[in-house]
Specification:
Layout: E1 2-3, E2 9-10, E3 16-26, E4 31-36, E5 49-54, E6 57-72, E7 75-80, H1 86-90, E8 96-100, E9 121-123, E10 129-137, E11 144-149, E12 154-158, E13 164-168, E14 173-176
Parallel strand pairs: 9-14
Antiparallel strand pairs: 1-2, 3-4, 3-8, 4-7, 5-6, 5-8, 6-7, 9-10, 10-11, 11-12, 13-14
Length: about 180
């Protein structure tokens, strides 16, 4: 167990999933605004603690206890134990925000968290290996799977029904029909 701001103990074995970014401060009392990667802040509001990594101190990940949380202007706004001034909150601007996996809301049957796709094998509809998902990137129209191709190099696979036929997170397998020339 390690000590973190606000006196909370954090078990390094706890799994966190990236859920958003700090977009700035809210008010003069040290609250931070967080934009959800999914665009829906409702899941973030259930957080009891947040891991914040980056801002003006890159690589300095810390876990903060959530004191209060509410929605404002399309963002989630948090008051965090140990962050009590506008200067302290402002220093977190741009930081990556993650939640404990066990605090994330359950998903409907055919949905999954991005983090669950990393490491999945990608095969075509005949079962021929195409590669492995190494990251997921947000895009303006749709998201992209970054795939380490079986033959070498990387490819971007659009996360749309026309190209992703099925995702089985439990089996760690994505069936895809990549676009022509992929």
């Amino acid at each position: 167990m390690e000590e973190v701001p606000g006196g909370e103990k954090h078990d390094p074995g706890v799994s966190f999933i990236e859920v958003g970014r700090v977009t700035g401060l809210h008010g003069a009392r040290g609250k931070v605004k967080v934009a959800a990667l999914s665009g829906d802040t409702s899941g973030l509001l259930a957080a009891k603690s947040l891991r914040i990594d980056g801002g003006r101190e890159p690589g300095a990940a810390r876990v903060y206890e959530v004191v209060t949380a509410h929605r404002a202007g399309g963002c989630a706004v948090f008051s965090l134990k140990g962050i009590g001034t506008a200067e302290a909150a402002g220093a977190l601007s741009g930081a990556v925000v993650s939640m404990r996996r066990d605090e994330l809301p359950p998903l409907p049957e055919d949905e999954f968290y991005w983090a669950d796709l990393v490491g999945c094998r990608v095969v075509n509809e005949e079962g021929v290996p195409l590669g492995e998902v190494i990251a997921v990137e947000a895009g303006p129209a749709h998201d992209w799977l970054v795939v380490a191709r079986a033959g070498g190099g990387e490819g971007l696979l659009p996360v749309v029904a026309a190209f992703l036929r099925s995702v089985d997170v439990a089996a760690r397998r994505v069936v895809a029909a990549p676009p022509e020339g992929w």
